[in-house]
Amino acid sequence: MSRAVRLVPPGVRALRGYDRRWLGRDVGAGVVLTALLVPQGMAYADLAGLPPITGLYTSITCLLGYAVFGPSRILVLGPDSSLGPVIAATVLPLVVAGGDPGRAVALASVLALLVGVVMVVAGWAGLGFVADLLSKPTMVGYLNGLALTILVGQLPELLGFSVDADGLVGEVAGSVQGVAGGEVVPAAAAVGIGGVVLVLALQRWLPKVPSVLVMVVLAIAATTLFDLGDRGVGLVGELPRGFPPLTLPSVGWSDLAPLAGGALAIALVALADTVSTASAFAERTGQEVRGNQEMAGIGVANVAAGLFQGFPVSTSASRTAVAERAGARSQLTGVTGAVLILLMILLLPGLFRDLPDAALAAVVVTAALSLADLPAVVRLWHQRRVEFGLSLAAFAGVALLGVLPGIGIAVGLSILNVFRHAWRPYQTTLGRVDGVPGYHDVRSYPAAQLLPGLVIVRFDAPLFFANAKTFRDAVVALARTEPPPRWIVVAAEPVTDVDTTAADVLFDLDRLLDARGQDLVFAELKDPVRAKIDRYGLDRAIEPQHFFPTVDAAVEAFRARTGARWSDETRPAPDPAVLPRPAAPLPAPPTAPVTPRGEHPG
């Protein structure tokens, strides 16, 4: 692709290959999508602590921005239930007492601009891989905690009253006190609980029916028929007419630091959500996921939202699924939805005047239920208890400490899990199995044969500062077995790197084994790793004849040198994972020169 073509936004390039036969499907899907975008946009704005109209402003601008700069033909962006609590946790503490809505909107808009800048810069720098910082178990725990937080936070609004409390425990206590104190508005509770039941029932048994739209229409009808506004039910009221002008939101310098922290957290969650959603739908449509372009497209969409009194956005799996089922073929579907929402604001601002707040809470609650994944937690319990614990810790972090600390905990746990695997990797010894070519794990083949005087060890990780001592202890433990082996062959194919700390350990280990008359031998070492070893000077400490291209070559060289033959009697090979660590270090050669750490002779 030429440089000139790369400078053209993906949406503009897509127009060149647009098939006119798609037009009817795209417009029709846009109409269907609008029925979901409007109530969800207002509901998620309320979840973020912002006026409902900002959800519509956000939906319009992000859809248009992504249509021009987004690479996917099918993804739908907009306000998202997983971001609402994060936005609220970032913005609301900065709003002065009295809850000035204008300041809250300005802060949320600056937050969207910061998210956009982070995403665009990260996409330009090729940092799409950071989505991998959230592992699946920790993401499951985070989303489960987020779902519980949303459910508890929306319960009072679902029942028609409000709670002024911070944190999950405070909101639970406030909700219990409100219910016990008779603050529940029966009409609002009927609308809210009935709305949840209706949406879930339609999604279960009539999935093609726009459940949210049906519930919203019925709630507005109930307001008109039963005068719910006079029965204590809060209503959305008439929306402001018109669309806000292009503005650069203004906030104090002291607000930027907390907003920047929230922006990083939102960018990470939005990226992880986008990559997973894009991958799922790309498999169905035959498209290729371009992570860095996705980041740039979502970044531009957030910038557009921030310039028109909007708040941060992400992709939505539910809205994308609705668009796909409705026949969407391109981003013209999103453009159609944006135009229809804009026309509604300009021409019909009173359309949702009689919509109960409890109905918006029902929209949020059903979205929160879709975030929770309890079967995945059960599966982790049965499959891998450690990852179940990680998921549970991420859940507890969000539920007890809040969504922003919860994101940090989820990322930290994911990184620690990676570090744990690298620090204590799988290690075993190999033996020969009759009828099976090659050399195999003695745990899988307990009757594997050994060659007397030879041990083959496999360490399934790169060697670096954190696990070098683990590797050394395993090899030293093998060297102390009885009868002591003459060669310890490292099947090094899984060793993808050796850092300088590990090189020092290998140098000392080779000297220790030499003092015992034992040899450290490497087989199947990758060329880039061998080049690093040579650069570190280890080729002058470990004899070149102790490097072999294959394990077979090492075994045959040992047999040729010693005359060893395969034992007729099979016995379990020594397992470095269960051998005791040496009580004392092996003696160094009495005549060995003293070499400072990090330096090698020669």
TrEMBL record:
Region (Disordered): 563-602
ATP-binding as UniProt keyword: no
Parts of the chain that traverse the membrane: 23-43, 49-69, 81-99, 105-130, 142-163, 183-202, 209-226, 256-282, 332-352, 358-378, 390-416
GO annotation terms (biological process): transmembrane transport
Keyword Transmembrane helix belongs to the record: yes
Bias (Pro residues) ranges: 573-593
Keywords from the named record: Membrane, Transmembrane, Transmembrane helix
Compartments reported by the entry: Membrane
Ranges of residues in domain STAS: 444-558
UniProt xrefs under NCBIfam families: sulP (TIGR00815)
UniProt protein name: High affinity sulphate transporter 1
